[in-house]
Write a structure and sequence with these properties.
Layout: E1 29-33, H1 49-54, H2 56-62, E2 66-69, E3 73-74, E4 86-90, H3 97-109, E5 113-118, H4 128-136, E6 148-149, E7 172-176, E8 182-187, H5 202-217, E9 222-225, H6 262-274, E10 281-284, H7 291-295, E11 305-306, H8 309-312, H9 318-332, E12 340-342, H10 351-354, H11 371-385, E13 391-395, H12 416-420, H13 464-467, H14 474-487, E14 498-499, E15 506-511, E16 514-519, E17 525-528, E18 532-536, E19 541-543, E20 546-549, E21 553-558
Parallel strand pairs: 1-2, 1-13, 2-5, 5-9, 9-10, 10-11, 12-13
Antiparallel strand pairs: 3-4, 6-8, 7-8, 14-15, 15-16, 16-21, 17-20, 18-21, 19-20
Helix pairs in contact: 5-6
The structure holds alpha-D-glucopyranose.
Length: 560
């Protein structure tokens, strides 16, 4: 097929991998960069790879191990780049393949690994294969690479089944055939501009193994797999009937999500990855009904990590947190994979806002809430997350304590979920507002040419510049926590926590010499002083062997 991508820079043997432990990923802290909103190198109002490259020293100094970049591939941007038109090209709005190469090299030189996003469930409707499928009409072999079906009803005017798009509305769109008549329908679990591949077709697997090699040859250290639970659909695409359609985290396996057949794909991918040196990894974005099902994705011959969305969806509540931590560790132990922990990403309400919302609201609902409470809980939740065994993910801007932007005017919104969202609140632009680097200046240092989503007027006070060196700032809390994590092997290592007796609403656990106490209540609680305070998300006072842990505060102790 004729791909419109430029030639790749010379394959990477020159891009030396980062030195370090082979199992670096088991306790790595991985920072998510959302390229549109991180830093704008060319002043067009949109973040880009050059912007990321110039800010790598910031990430090194923050103390993370790796950087995961959301998609920067050629794309019409119907879903902010999760609609890929060419998997081997960089979209001009983000730069060129040479910029990607420079970014990988510079990151490695700084000791940072680079993980790229891979979007295999669907392509853009502008992908060569889909354009050809439309042009060649019903019955053509090119249609078999997607899910085309005749409609139901007398004239095929009804969708082939009752599935709904995650972004709202039917999961099917009817096409106009080359002869101008209304024709077949195609499946898209997300926007109509994101047709789902038919993974039963061998060409799809061949193409993706080749795409993997392309980026592995470029020197990337791993892949985050988008909608990793979605590629295989149940035989015959059965109706859901009365079965409730679920959006992301459900109680059940759906005919389009978490089908057992996806695991065959990952076993094949693992063989490809393992041909390469450098301890590279896969991480699954798999919204499965339970952590036990998530564990299937990280069996020894499949992927390395999977995001822990059950943890992300847990409220700021000691009992709920203890349950999800135990259940996660128990689920991962038999497959030998590390647990992962995540609080925010580009799809959910930032946790500094979410934790101020009344319990029971989902991860997608955006209410302003009490910012002080939200931030206090967010800081405490971060120290709790970073004290757990396994690997943790940090979403850009959370280290600044950024809240979600809940009052974006309708005319600036870009999330397709907002426009298709009958009956759901999933508008994700609020967590995607470009981050502030400086107190003042155009777009607070994001770039010289403004910002593709407007930033709130108080963003300067939350900037990297404003928080750097400021005792007690959220940025300095993250820096200190990540520094402790780097110095002490006992934080991320292993797979066990020893729970200590604690008052209701308080979590306390020991890991070797290290003790973590998280007070999720609105009142200060007395706790034994477990040794030397390493770090705390609020003010701890100690007297006569007793410590007062304030409301919504986490403290780390060492020794005793
Ligand atoms: C994943 C991405 C999300 C995207 C969707 C479709 O859930 O994280 O941003 O809209 O997949 O690709």
């Amino acid at each position: 097929m004729s791909q419109q991508h430029s030639a790749a820079p010379a394959p990477n043997s020159a891009v030396s991998a980062v030195e370090g432990r082979p199992d670096w990923w088991r306790d790595a802290v991985i920072y998510q960069v959302y390229p549109r909103s991180f830093a704008d190198g060319n002043g067009d109002g949109m973040g880009d790879l050059e912007g990321v490259r110039t800010r790598l020293p910031y990430l090194r100094d923050l103390g993370v191990d790796a950087v995961w970049l959301s998609p920067f591939y050629a794309s019409p941007q119907a879903d902010a780049g999760y609609d890929v038109a060419d998997y081997r090209a960089v979209d001009p709005m983000f730069g060129t393949l040479l910029d990607a190469d420079a970014l990988i090299r510079d990151a490695h030189a700084l000791g940072l690994r680079i993980i790229v996003d891979l979007v295999p469930n669907h392509s853009s409707d502008q992908y060569e294969w889909f354009k050809r499928a439309l042009a060649e009409g019903p019955g053509s072999p090119s249609r078999d690479r997607y899910h085309f079906r005749p409609g139901k009803g007398k004239n095929g005017e009804l969708p082939p089944n009752d599935w709904e798009s995650i972004f709202g509305g039917p999961a099917w769109t009817r096409v106009t055939e080359p002869d101008g008549t209304p024709g077949e329908w195609y499946l898209h679990l997300f926007a109509p501009e994101q047709p789902d591949f038919n993974w039963e077709h061998p060409a799809v697997g061949d193409e993706f193994r080749s795409i993997l090699r392309f980026w592995l040859d470029m020197g990337v250290d791993g892949f985050r797999i988008d909608v990793a639970h979605g590629m295989v659909k149940a035989e015959g695409l059965p109706d859901l009937g009365d079965h409730e359609q679920l959006t992301l985290l459900g109680n059940d396996v759906m005919p389009f999500f978490d089908q057992d057949g996806v695991h065959d794909i990952y076993r094949e991918w693992r063989l490809v990855l393992d041909e390469y040196s450098g301890n590279r990894i896969f991480v699954a974005e798999a919204w499965t009904p339970t952590v036990e099902r998530t564990a299937n994705y990280v069996r020894p011959d499949e992927l390395h990590q999977a995001f822990n969305f059950q943890y992300l969806a847990t409220h700021w509540d000691a009992e709920e947190l203890r349950t999800v931590v135990n259940r996660t560790l128990d689920a991962m132990r038999p497959v030998g994979a590390p647990a992962t922990w995540v609080l925010s990403n580009h799809d959910v309400t930032r946790h500094a806002t979410r934790f101020a919302n009344p319990a029971g609201l989902g991860t997608q609902i955006r209410l302003a809430g009490d910012r002080g409470v939200g931030l206090r809980r967010a800081r405490a939740a971060t120290l709790l997350m970073l004290a757990l065994p396994g690997s943790a993910y940090v979403y850009q801007g959370e280290e600044l304590g950024l809240p979600d932007v809940v009052d974006l005017p309708d005319e600036v919104r870009q999330d397709p979920a907002y426009f298709r969202g009958a009956g759901q609140d999933g508008f994700r632009d609020g967590c995607r507002v470009p981050i502030p680097w400086t107190r003042t200046g155009p777009s607070y240092g994001f770039g010289d040419g403004g910002s593709w989503l407007p930033q709130p007027a108080d963003w300067g006070g939350l900037s990297v510049e404003a928080q750097t060196g400021e005792p007690g700032s959220t940025l300095e809390l993250y820096r200190a926590a990540l520094a402790v994590r780097r110095e002490r092997a006992d934080l991320g290592a292993g797979d066990a926590v020893e729970w200590l007796r604690a008052p209701e609403g308080v979590l306390a656990f020991r890991r070797g010499e290290f003790v973590c106490v998280a007070n999720t209540t609105g009142e200060s609680v007395p706790m034994p002083a477990y040794g030397r305070v390493l770090l705390a998300s609020g003010e701890i006072t100690e007297a006569a062997g007793e410590a007062k842990v304030p409301a919504d505060t986490t403290v780390w102790w060492s020794g005793s």
